[in-house]
Amino acid sequence: MNLRFRKLTLRAVLSASVLLLALPLAWAASPAPAPARPASAAAAYPAAAKPAAKPAASAPQAASAPVAAAPKPPEPEPAVRGYAVPIGGALKADNEEVWQRLVQLAGGKGARFVVFGTASEDPEASAKQVVDQLQRRGALAEALPVAPKFSWVDLNKVVRDQALIAKVKAARGVFFTGGLQERIVDVLLPNGQTTPMLDAIWDVYRRGGVVAGTSAGAAIMSTVMFRDAPSVINILKGRFAEGKQIDRGLGFVGPSLFVDQHFLKRGRFGRMIPLMMSKGYQIGLGVDENTAAVIRGDEVEIIGDRGALVVDLSAATSKPELGAFNVTGARLSYLEHGDRYHLRARSVTPAPFKLRGDLHDHESPSFRPYYTDEVFHLDMLGDSTISNAMSRLIDSNRTEVQGLAFDVVPRAGDPLAELGFLFRLYKGSDSLGWSTEEFGGEQYTVTNLYLDVSPVRLPRPLYGQWPVPAASAAGAQP
């Protein structure tokens, strides 16, 4: 199927959703009109983007001035020189780029790995799968018996076992499998207290080694993590608490970066932003399935099949007087294979093959957008909806796209059953994108789009029976 046919088909499907724009959105004030843009010309940009700029202005608000997050002082250069590699989950056996990179970062053929199946329901099988994949790429890998599901293991003793700790210290790589991330934290950092085995893992990391993890193994990378939060919409509604939905992580990416996994597939940007605002994070990195982020110091590189989302709240504001979660001016960047992000500079460097493709600069006189139709998303938290919306908007003559998120089947008696959220994704003067088909399918890099989220009321029921005309009803046969 050629590109134009695919795009036209997508256009037809998405345009149909505009018919449902009449849903009542009455919780908050109407969204601001599309932002005005300066008429300045733009040339091609060699790497990152235009100089950072504020998002396009929204309509004036009658309420009191928004409350901005308190700015953080500049951080010192990180002392850690190892590699943290969060993998978004569902890592496939044939993802050569990720598996080979892990072995390469740990020193190449013969690199020693220890594998923790701690999070898994079947830790022996999960760890064996990872051991097999690493060994196929030339590593020397061994699974360690550190898991709550091993009922015959005394976890208090095993995390202090000097023979096992010696194996960790002799390794150049550590890998955590998927499962329940709280199991990893509860075993290695019980009640917030470090253990000799966790100290040994940190020793590997500080010596320049690799600490990698998939799914649950990625969630533990930040100092704060989601412990058990199955419902994104409930997090948006403010239903999260310490020790239940959120908890401490192991912190390999440092105190200033929040990491989440299964990110685009499960619409988890909807839970990331409330947690970031609650905990004072300014930068978040959401890694999608079968994708990894290689993080060393301030440098982040995306590898694998899908992509990642960077959320920057350094200039975002919120209005507590609305009485529900809201944010204005969250800055989003969507990265794919080969793209890099610098955490301190807040800058994106597209992969070289993207720079050989098309530049999408909505302020340039030479900008020729492909998409022209209006789109409204009825489930902004759907599978890859946010990344698709970003890729489409950057290649469009539209200035914004909107969508909703709400609880389709709220529990009985839920006092917040009618609370939904309106998402407004829009361009700023520094918004840029790149795209290419060099490797067969379309690949995008999108930088500096902006997101506002507002609480809205969606009356229940959302729909009712279509009224039958009186004449038809009278003539109906019994």
TrEMBL record:
Signal peptide (from-to): 1-28
EC number: 3.4.15.6
InterPro entries listed in its UniProt record: Class_I_gatase-like, Peptidase_S51, Peptidase_S51_cyanophycinase
This protein's record includes keyword Hydrolase: yes
Top class in the EC scheme: hydrolase
Gene3D superfamilies: 3.40.50.880
Source domain of life: Bacteria
Reaction catalysis annotation: [L-4-(L-arginin-2-N-yl)aspartate](n) + H2O = [L-4-(L-arginin-2-N-yl)aspartate](n-1) + L-4-(L-arginin-2-N-yl)aspartate
CDD domains assigned to the protein according to its UniProt record, in alphabetical order: GAT1_cyanophycinase
Example GO molecular function: carboxypeptidase activity
Alphabetized UniProt keyword annotations: Carboxypeptidase, Hydrolase, Protease, Serine protease, Signal
Cited function: Exopeptidase that catalyzes the hydrolytic cleavage of multi-L-arginyl-poly-L-aspartic acid (cyanophycin; a water-insoluble reserve polymer) into aspartate-arginine dipeptides.
Homology family: Belongs to the peptidase S51 family.
Protein name according to UniProt: Cyanophycinase
Originating organism: Roseateles paludis
